[in-house]
Task: structure prediction
Amino acid sequence: MNSLVSSLLSFAQQVPAEKILLDMNALAQTAVKLSQPQLRARGIQVHTDLASDLPQILGDSNQLLQVCLHITNNALQAMAQTGGVLSVSTRRHDQFVQLEFADDGPGAQEPDRVFDPFYTTKPIGQGTGLGLSACYGIIQEHKGKIMCQNGVKEATWAEAPSESTDAEVQASVTLTLPPTP
Result:
């Protein structure tokens, strides 16, 4: 019960963002580095493909790191039983900087609902359904977009075990943020 109350209070807390110039690649690398022990313990490999020509973004480093860590943790939970590959990539897309997390897990059951408050697929007592909803709010505050989709695993992200097929389902969460004005 304490966990639920803490989650609700954290979700409701409105702390103004302290925005500074950020390197999205450094943010992604920090999230991967902090998550590495848990990923390794579950047999999850991390592949990164970070673009070298990204402009800086204006953002709150703590909030955006929280988003990255939460998404990484969700990927970890999705692949906890089977292991797999977490692909983290950055790229420039039109006038935005994109950071994408894609995993070899079973995919999101209802990708259109994952950002809804209190939506969870975890057993009772193991999740509140507020984490991705909070991530959505943070990205909205940064004038960005966040989406989750199930899709076909692209061969360019591969280095997957040879028994895998191109039709494997993966979950992909993409953060799209505007560069500095």
